[in-house]
């Protein structure tokens, strides 16, 4: 069907390319060693790219696929997963700007299969990554971070964060940050709060998501967004109990993605 697809695409202004896995290629009993697009989907996409038209890629899948080849080469990527009976309406509304997307990835996308497992809340290592240092935890042929990280997700507008403050309250901490819609469309932003322990009696993750809040902002609007982290948010499970260590320093971080987090240092006394 390549020729038919190409003939249709030649008459269009924009190509919407629906691709991905079929329903039996994800889920229980459906492990795959190679997480690229199955079959000849890549070959058709390569021929469509030769037409020089904008391409919007719709990916239907039950897992993160290897997307390195398409990042930067597609004009837009909408990761559709496997949705339900209202999926066509949701996809249509997002493609045509009726809906301004606000979703964030709930899992990391690897550069390649050799990077798996990759996740935002990995445990700290004894040899953390240092640029240009050979004897540390890193890859020689790909970046250390995922292709797309937990919490990534674009909007048709943009948001900026400023004036991050932490207030100690009776049973924990109140995180407050100013969020501004700095783009040209009204939209929702997902504000995420993370913690990182500087020390602990057990290994703790590099980051732990402990709160999030959705906020709607008109063009140019600024709102103060607050997230409460009570002391339970700092506990960890050990030997059949939840432990709150005292005299431990924590980084409290807030933002819309992992790359632009604002940070404040606190101590639980």
The tally of strands reads 12
Termini distance? 67 Å
The total of helices stands at 3
Largest sheet: 4 strands, antiparallel
Radius of gyration from the CA trace?
Answer: 22 Å
Q: Order of strands across the biggest sheet?
A: 7-6-11-12
Order of helices and strands: HEHEEHEEEEEEEEE
Structural class: mainly beta
Taking pLDDT < 50 over at least 5 consecutive residues as the criterion, the unreliable ranges are none
Q: Taking all residues together, what is the mean pLDDT? A: 95
Structure report:
There is one protein chain. With 269 residues, this protein is mainly beta. The chain is 10% helix and 32% strand. It has three helices and twelve strands, in the order αβαββαβββββββββ. The strands form four sheets. A four-stranded antiparallel beta sheet has the order 7-6-11-12, with no helix packed on it. Strands 1-2-3 form a three-stranded parallel beta sheet, with helices on one face. Strands 4-5-8 form a three-stranded antiparallel beta sheet, with no helix packed on it. The longest helix has 9 residues, at 2-10.
Task: Fill in the keyword field for this structure.
mainly beta, 10% helix, four-stranded antiparallel sheet, 3 helices
Brief write-up:
The protein has 269 residues and is mainly beta.
Topology (elements, then pairings):
Layout (H helix, E strand, L loop, with lengths): L1 H9 L4 E6 L20 H9 L5 E6 L15 E4 L7 H9 L63 E11 L2 E10 L5 E11 L10 E10 L4 E9 L5 E2 L4 E2 L4 E8 L6 E7 L1
Parallel strand pairs: 1-2, 2-3
Antiparallel strand pairs: 4-5, 5-8, 6-7, 6-11, 9-10, 11-12
């Amino acid at each position: 069907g390549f020729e038919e697809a190409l003939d249709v695409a030649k008459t269009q202004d924009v190509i919407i390319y629906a691709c991905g896995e079929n329903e039996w290629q994800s889920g229980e009993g459906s492990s795959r060693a190679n997480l690229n697009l199955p079959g000849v989907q890549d070959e058709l996409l390569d021929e469509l790219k030769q037409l020089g038209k904008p391409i919007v890629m719709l990916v239907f899948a039950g897992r993160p696929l290897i997307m390195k080849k398409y990042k930067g080469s597609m004009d837009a990527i909408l990761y559709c997963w496997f949705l339900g009976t209202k999926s066509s309406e949701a996809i249509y509304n997002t493609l045509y700007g009726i809906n301004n997307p606000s979703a964030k990835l709930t899992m990391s996308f690897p550069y390649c299969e050799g990077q798996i497992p990759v996740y935002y809340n990995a445990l700290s290592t004894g040899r953390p990554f240092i640029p240009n240092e050979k004897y540390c935890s890193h890859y020689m042929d790909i970046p250390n971070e995922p292709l797309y990280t937990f919490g990534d997700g674009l909007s048709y507008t943009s948001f900026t964060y400023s004036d991050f403050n932490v207030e100690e309250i009776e049973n924990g901490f109140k995180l407050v940050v100013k969020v501004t819609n700095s783009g040209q469309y009204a939209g929702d932003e997902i504000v995420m709060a993370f913690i990182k322990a500087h020390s602990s009696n057990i290994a703790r993750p590099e980051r732990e998501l402990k709160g999030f809040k959705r906020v709607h902002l008109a063009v140019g609007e600024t709102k103060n967004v607050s997230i409460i982290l009570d002391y339970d948010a700092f506990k960890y499970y050990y030997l059949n109990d939840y432990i709150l260590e005292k005299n431990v320093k924590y980084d409290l971080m807030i933002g819309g993605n992992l790359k632009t987090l604002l940070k404040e240092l606190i101590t639980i006394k």
